[in-house]
Specification:
A: 9% helix; B: 195 residues; alpha+beta; 2 domains; seven-stranded mixed β-sheet; five-stranded antiparallel β-sheet
Chain lengths: 98, 195
């Protein structure tokens, strides 16, 4: 499985670390809403298809990425920096080399 | 300054090794730069950091991820968004940056004693490195001056191409000896010379 890092370009999955479900929304740290905390810790969509995930390119630029992965085919349909502000400048295989 | 000892000292054996009857296709050496410095810009401060790098080293960074340049004495390359490795044969690079890269722009980390710099050169350099790292070493995809960060068996490595068939690899000092031995084994088939 290849993941195209927005900085480094296409890299083998061995360089990446899975950081969990990208659909979770963390409640405010002071929140007393137990249902919200329960949902944050336990509730998962578990879709058979496209899934939002957080990955870290731990064996490369170490950036955290938002990845959409198909859980049936492992196809990666999009990758982006989890934190905005850095524009993607990597060369992508699909676009060809300039 | 404290005298630096190389972690490669017990295993670095100068001379020709491996299958060199038909000539050596690989030259391995430890470059022992005086300074290895890592610079990181806060989000939005990248331009100011890049101009600071030019002020201190005289090197201009090309646009794009992993871009870099070298003049043979000083080298610089990007290895992550807003982060750069700068290398100088002379010592004291970190203190030179301390006055230019202010806390408002980013951070300066002196890695001179934490990394070991290994140079692999020769017509088979791409071939040998391709056995280690799953990245494209061809010249159009990895131009001279550019840098890449990747791993070999979980050993983090920063690679800069400093010539058409020459690469400088920066690995953790504590892993340098085993990495060097692996590099020697991988070079045996083509014949290598240690300088």
């Amino acid at each position: 499985m290849l993941i195209t890092c927005p900085y480094c370009g296409p890299r083998d999955v061995i360089e990446f670390t899975y950081q969990g479900d990208g659909n979770r929304e963390r409640p405010q740290p002071a929140s007393q809403n137990l249902d919200a905390w329960n949902a944050y810790v336990y509730d998962r969509l578990n879709p058979a298809g496209d899934h939002n995930e957080i990955w870290q390119h731990s064996g490369g630029c170490r950036a955290h990425l938002r990845v959409v992965r198909n859980t049936l085919t492992h196809e990666i349909s999009s990758t982006a920096f989890a934190r905005g502000g850095h524009k993607s400048t990597a060369r992508h295989k699909a676009e060809g080399k300039s | 300054m404290v005298e630096r000892q190389s972690p490669l000292e017990p295993v670095l054996q100068a001379g020709s090794h491996g299958n060199f009857e038909h000539g050596v296709d690989i030259i391995l050496s430890e470059t022992q730069p005086g300074s290895i410095v890592q610079l990181a810009a806060w989000p939005g401060e990248e331009r100011r950091l890049i101009s600071g790098i030019r002020t201190v080293t005289g090197l201009a960074l090309p646009d794009g991820a992993g871009g870099g340049s070298t003049d043979g004495v000083k080298s610089v390359f990007g290895f992550a968004p807003g982060k750069f490795t700068v290398v100088d044969e002379a010592e004291g690079l970190a203190s030179a940056f301390a006055g230019v890269v202010t806390p408002a722009i980013g951070t300066v980390t002196d890695l001179s004693h934490g990394r070991t710099a290994i140079r692999i050169a020769g017509p088979k350099a791409e071939w040998v490195l391709a056995k280690f790292f799953a990245i494209d070493f061809a010249l159009p995809a990895f131009p001279v001056g550019a840098g890449r960060s990747t791993v070999h068996h979980d050993v983090f490595a920063q690679i800069q191409r400093t010539g058409a068939d020459q690469f400088d690899i920066y690995v953790f000092r504590s892993f340098a000896r085993s990495f060097w031995k692996a590099l020697c084994h991988a070079s045996e088939e083509v014949g290598y010379e240690v300088q």
